[in-house]
Amino acid sequence: MSGKPRLTYLNGRGRMESIRWLLAAAGVEFEEVYLETKEQYEKLIKDGFLLYQQVPLVEIDGMKMVQTRAIMSYIAGKYNLYGKDLKERALIDMYVEGISDLMQMILMFPFSPPDAKEKNLESIKERATNRYFPVFEKVLKQHGQDFLVGNKFSWADVQLMEAILAVEEKVPDVLSGFPQLQVFKTKMSNMPTIKKFLQPGSPRKPPPDAHYVETVLKVFKK
């Protein structure tokens, strides 16, 4: 074992992508194991690696961690991206939970039936522009700082940056009415660890395509 965190998931975004983002933003290198068959997935369950028979699975500090939220809380705490006290942590949690709701819609979008794609895309745009992005635009404007919580880079900033880019892939002009978020996106893009993660050849995964959807359905089919 190299000492690097070891991530087990499919070779695509899904629920692991936010974990990849957080590790990369913290400047942590990691290894990946990709599930390609149902048999590989069933072996993990049989061997007792998956507490709830679900991935993502992250092996870190001698633990085999499952559940995305628990994994990310641990990483954020370990690498000092989780605020300086309980109040800051509560704010980070609130922001992360909100962004996660938006990301869940994006996560499920590739699995939409063809006749529902347009409607689901409209829902993503509507939620982003009317419910979620206005919150962060207001927060950044009110306190006039570079980051969402305590003027210090945190898990919430990483999650928001991932969400902005994910929505922009589907709605390129989504930030047109959000000047603070435009500035935020530029600043985040230039942070060394995030800049590196956004370069070609990094562990960041491309948008899900038909092959990814097919693999997901094959590996996890009942």
UniProtKB/TrEMBL annotation:
Residues 3-83 form the GST N-terminal domain. Keywords: Transferase. Coiled coil: none annotated. It holds the Pfam family GST_C_3. GO terms for biological process: glutathione metabolic process. It is an enzyme of class 2 (transferase). The keyword Transferase applies. Residues 85-209 form the GST C-terminal domain. GO terms for molecular function: glutathione transferase activity. Its EC number is 2.5.1.18. Belongs to the GST superfamily. Alpha family. PANTHER family: GLUTATHIONE S-TRANSFERASE, GLUTATHIONE TRANSFERASE. This is glutathione transferase.
